[in-house]
Structure formats: C-alpha cells, structure tokens
Amino acid sequence: MNKMSDLLERLRDRGWRLTSQRRVVAEVLDGDHVHLTADEVHARAAERLPEISRATVYNTLGELVALGEVLEVATDGRAKRYDPNAHRPHQHLVCFACGTIRDVHPTGDPLASLPSAERFGFTITTAEVTYRGLCADCARSAA
Ligand SMILES: [Zn+2]
Ligand SMILES: [Zn+2]
Hints:
- The protein is an alpha+beta fold and 143 residues long.
- The chain contains five helices and six strands.
- It folds into two domains: 81 residues, Arc Repressor Mutant, subunit A, CATH 1.10.10.10; 52 residues, Dna Ligase, domain 1 (2-Layer Sandwich).
- Helix 3 packs across helix 4.
- Bound molecules: zinc ion (ZN) (2 copies).
- Belongs to the Fur family.
C-alpha cells in the first residue's frame, strides 16, 4: 500500500511543492490504465482528505497537465480524463458499453503511417488513435 507512485516520484524529482492536497491528488492518479474524470479524482481524494475542495483538485490537475506530468484525454466526447501515463507514448482502447479505457501500444507509429500525400504540407507532431469495441466483460454479458 505504501508504494510511491511514479507520478509522485517524478513530482518529487522536479521539486514540485507537495502539500497534503497535492499529494493526495497525485496518489489518486497512481497506477496503470488510470483515466479518471476530475470529479472521480475529487471523490477519491476526498475519501482520504475530506476537506479537499473541488476547486483545489481542478487547479492541481491543471498544474499537472501544464507540467506535462498528466495527460488530458478526451476519448468519447464526454468528460475529459486525466492520465498519469504521460511519459510513455500510448494510444487508447475504449469499451463503448462501459467506458473502460486501456493504454495500448500499437505496432508501428501512427505518426509515420500517414502517407505524405495525405499530409497537406503539415508538419505533424502528434497523432491519437482510439480503438473502440466491446470489452470482454461487456461482450460476455451481451451474449
Ligand atoms: Zn465494457
Ligand atoms: Zn492512457
């Protein structure tokens, strides 16, 4: 339980001032395949630190995004999600029934796969691919 998250370690290395409120937000974002909405981050943070306000959580998330330590992910046109897996390029696999999101690593670089004739002179710096379908649990219950 006491494992320090990657995110917390990275923030410590950067000398980010870790108040108890910031620490709780970083702890909530610990782990793999974490993609939480701001409201989910707030609800989980409040379980550990009941006095933490929604505004503090939102501001802290904004700072983490500005630092490049947390990604903002919008996969489904719903609420933005916050993803601490900011240093390993990845794409997302989304279940359109339950909304589960997995970090995935396709073979081949999505940036490189766009032919030059389709680039319209753009200097392209990022590419996002979202794979959608039914997760195994949802496929089972739909059967
Ligand atoms: Zn599902
Ligand atoms: Zn992700």
